[in-house]
Amino acid sequence: MVNLTSKSGFLLMGFSDDHKLQVLHALLFLVIYLLALTGNLLIITIITLDHRLHSPMYYFLNHLSLLDLCFISVTVPQSIANSLMDSGYISFGQCILQVFFFIALASSEVAILTVMSYGPYVAICQPLQYETIMNPSACRRAVIAVWMVGALYGLMHTTVIFSISLCGEKVINFFIAVAAFTTSTAFICLISIVLSYIRIFSMVLRIPSAESRTKVFSTCLPHLFVVTFFLSAAGFEFLRHPSDSRSAVDLMFSIFYTVIPPTLNPVIYSLRNEAMKAALKKVLSKDEFSQRKMYFKAMFKL
């Protein structure tokens, strides 16, 4: 236990007081973190390099992967370091930054998942207007709005949190488990997504071709699964009755919304996506690698 009488900071509570278990948790989270980094970086690389994937859907997926990359990096490295050093101490400044980025990125993730549900809705329900509505300029503005809303909300929420006077022991359970978004905002986003998919599925069920229906469902269902998983886990965590002690179930749900989505999203969005798999094969092919190598050599010579 860190003596906090001479330090202005907080103590993050881990999974266990047993140092051997803490090391085991650190190694497990390190593996998960590396998988998340690899998967999301791979998606960003593939979409950036393959011009065939420069469409609205993959543009938003690219930013979702970037958000996931940043989101998991806010909490997991700190948790790994604390477990290995057997010290949960975090300075006041570090705590402010962690809370800000956690809330900002979580809010941005909810926002971009909401935006991503609008693309399929326009493509299926308003196909003749798709090119006009989902033009590159509109997509860029939507992404800028997503990042700005997250940053503003993170700043506002962090200011409110740290304006409150703290009494007693400065002990924080597990990750910085503060409300990443208000219940009302999340509810509005969830309703928007649900309404979009109700319209989408009602239109899809009218399609006579079973193959076309299957193709649409295989595109939409992964996104719906990601949204449901993220919001349900986060909602359970933030709406539960506050308590000084945390059960194993509470800790498990904290993992679900902070660690699992950024790790699984690359798999969910690329596993059954033929375009992504084809692009991955192209990027990893010897011919493509040789061309990229020659391109970068030519650039550096200039």
UniProtKB/TrEMBL annotation:
SUPFAM superfamilies, per the entry: Family A G protein-coupled receptor-like
CDD domains per UniProt: 7tmA_OR14-like
Keywords for this protein: Cell membrane, G-protein coupled receptor, Membrane, Olfaction, Receptor, Sensory transduction, Transducer, Transmembrane, Transmembrane helix
InterPro entries for the chain: GPCR_Rhodpsn, GPCR_Rhodpsn_7TM, Olfact_rcpt, Olfactory_GPCR
Domain of life from the UniProt record: Eukaryota
Membrane topology, record value: Multi-pass membrane protein
Gene3D superfamilies for the chain: Rhodopsin 7-helix transmembrane proteins (1.20.1070.10)
UniProt domain G-protein coupled receptors family 1 profile: residue ranges: 39-269
Keyword Transmembrane: yes
Localization annotation: Cell membrane
Signal peptide limits: none
GO cellular component, as recorded: plasma membrane
GO function terms (MF aspect): G protein-coupled receptor activity; olfactory receptor activity
TM annotation in the entry: 23-47, 59-76, 96-121, 142-166, 172-195, 216-239, 251-271
One Pfam family cited in the UniProt record for this chain: 7tm_1
Family assignment from sequence similarity: Belongs to the G-protein coupled receptor 1 family.
PANTHER family: OLFACTORY RECEPTOR (PTHR26452)
Record-given protein name: Olfactory receptor 14J1-like
Gene source species: Ictidomys tridecemlineatus
